[in-house]
Design goal:
This protein has 161 residues and is of the alpha/beta class. 52% of the residues lie in helices and 15% in strands. It has a five-stranded parallel beta sheet, sandwiched between helices. Strand 1, helix 2 (45-56) and strand 2 (60-63) form a beta-alpha-beta unit.
Length: 161
């Protein structure tokens, strides 16, 4: 029982430290992240878990829901002035969706917005997408604290508000 309690305390303390990092006085507002499910992919459990973890870390999270188009995602990101877009994709359409989102972001001059994501993406495709400008891509089972840290660090390095 003591081991279980210790794990809970460590997890809570780590989450609290990440929350402080996200809310540090470097920024005038919380980090804003748009979490989206693009295309016909109807499985959103992972996206909801990520959205909750980001929120618990002190970020402002906008969840678009299911069956969004790349245009809908980028327009929402622009309207909400987000710092990062996280795409959850399990359908295999990642080599179409991510490049389309990157193209739309460039057209709207949103070059300072992180595009990241996760799901079922083969390693070779991850490499190709990163070469095209996508940030880190996270496979299923990634520790949510790693995702929080990555987004927080990226925003601290690339955004100024």
């Amino acid at each position: 029982m003591a081991g279980l309690f210790s794990k809970f305390i460590i997890r809570y303390y780590t989450s609290f430290l990440l929350h402080l990092q996200c809310m540090s006085n470097t920024f005038n507002r919380p980090i804003r992240v748009l979490v989206a499910k693009v295309g016909l992919d109807g499985h959103d459990r992972g996206a909801r878990i990520i959205a909750t973890s980001l929120r618990d870390a002190g970020m402002e999270v906008i969840y678009t829901g299911l069956r969004q188009t790349p245009e809908m995602v980028v327009n929402t990101a622009l309207q909400e002035d987000v710092d990062a877009i996280g795409i959850s994709i399990l359908s295999g359409a990642h080599m179409t969706v991510f490049p389309k989102i990157l193209k739309l972001i460039k057209e709207k001059q949103m070059d300072d917005v992180l595009v990241t994501g996760g799901g079922i993406i083969p390693n070779d495709d991850m490499i190709t997408l990163k070469e095209q400008g996508v940030g880190e891509l996270f496979p299923p089972g990634t520790n949510t604290q790693d995702i929080v840290k990555y987004i927080t660090d990226w925003v601290h390095q690339h955004r100024n508000f």
